[in-house]
Amino acid sequence: MDAPGRSFVKCCVRHNGYHSCERCDVEGEYNDNNRVTYLRMDGNIRTDESYKLQVDPDHQTGLSPLIKETDAGDSLNTGLVSQVVLEPFHCSMGALSSEFGPWKLHTEIVDLISSVFEFIRPFCPIDFNRKPRSLKFFRSIAIFN
């Protein structure tokens, strides 16, 4: 689940808010690039219990339906801190995308790789689930050029 979807389901501040860290209660600051950064690393760790008790009103926008009790008195008992996973790809790409600058491939190299993939496509056995295709079909190609 992506960050906006996670914040909707968990009823918490969206990923670009001052109190949006999902693992601790540190307050973020906007930097020159209009991004929230967390300069301190000494925030209190969030727990499932503190989330259920809504200890941090700056982080939570309401009570999530995943922990809300029904009229019958039961709930899903979902741990909104321990059981909702952060996507490693988006965490690492958000932190490292600016670091990829020196390693970006030139457009000519990306085109060359794409042409090789397209050339070998007819020679791949029918057993291949996904035959090679041009790199322009890959979303993550934005990393490379």
Observed structural traits:
two-stranded antiparallel sheet, 145 residues, single chain, mainly alpha
Widest beta sheet: strand line-up: 1-2
The run of helices and strands is: HEEHHH
Distance between the termini: 26 Å
Uncertain residue ranges: none
The Cα radius of gyration reads 22 Å
User: Quick one: overall form?
Assistant: elongated
Tally of helical runs: 4
Structural class comes to mainly alpha
Approximate helicity band: 10-25%
Q: What's the main sheet like?
A: 2 strands, antiparallel
Tell me the number of strands: 2
Mean pLDDT: 80
Beta-strand percentage range? under 5%
Protein name: tRNA pseudouridine synthase A 1
Organism: Frankliniella fusca
Please give the structural blueprint.
Layout: H1 3-10, E1 29-30, E2 36-37, H2 48-52, H3 88-96, H4 107-120
Antiparallel strand pairs: 1-2
Organism: Frankliniella fusca
Protein name: tRNA pseudouridine synthase A 1
Structure in words:
By secondary structure, this protein is mainly alpha-helical. Helix content is 25%, strand content 3%. It contains 4 helices and 2 strands; from the N terminus they run αββααα. A two-stranded antiparallel ribbon has the order 1-2. Strand 1 and strand 2 form a beta hairpin. The mean pLDDT is 80. It comes from Frankliniella fusca. This is tRNA pseudouridine synthase A 1.
